Amino acid sequence: MRSTIGRGWRRLQDHGAAFKSMRTAGEVDEALRWLKELHDQRWQSSSCLSAPGMPQFIEDVTRRLVGRGVVFHAILTDSAPAAIAMGLEDEERYLYYLTGFGPELAQYSPGAVLLSRIIEECHGRGCKEVDMLRGAETYKYRFNAVDRPQVHLRAVNRGLMRRTQYSLREAPLV
Length: 174
What we know:
The protein is α+β, with helices and mostly antiparallel strands and about 170 residues long. The chain has helices at about 1-15, 25-45, 55-65, 110-125, 140, 160-170, and strands at about 15-20, 70-75, 80-90, 95-100, 130.
């Protein structure tokens, strides 16, 4: 993996690649446009950003969190984005959330290179954890991801109507 990332980064640099972190309001607006373009290019018809209301949700959340934890990281080639990731950070953790990259440089593993640069930056800032969130995608295990159990907890009012509604809602479909 280290060899693949190193080779990919060197080849991307041959195309003028640079790693950039974006946290200010102006940078985040630009990064949002890049994310929409690159995510759609990468995922085409299965893009989660094509779900009803999702683009507006991402935009609203991102704008509210400018200066309070939202960060975009990108690999730019000749000032154009080749790969981008949206994440949330605090002093000790980084949450790797949404990504995209263009297909024209896919042979250089821009997603893996970008994630490795993010991990390096987080380490340099003193983060104790890079959380790649839920999902068992194989690329996560290439970075030595460790699964943690998730707990789903639902509190239900004890009243008869609430219990009945809950039972009906949770009943298996036949």
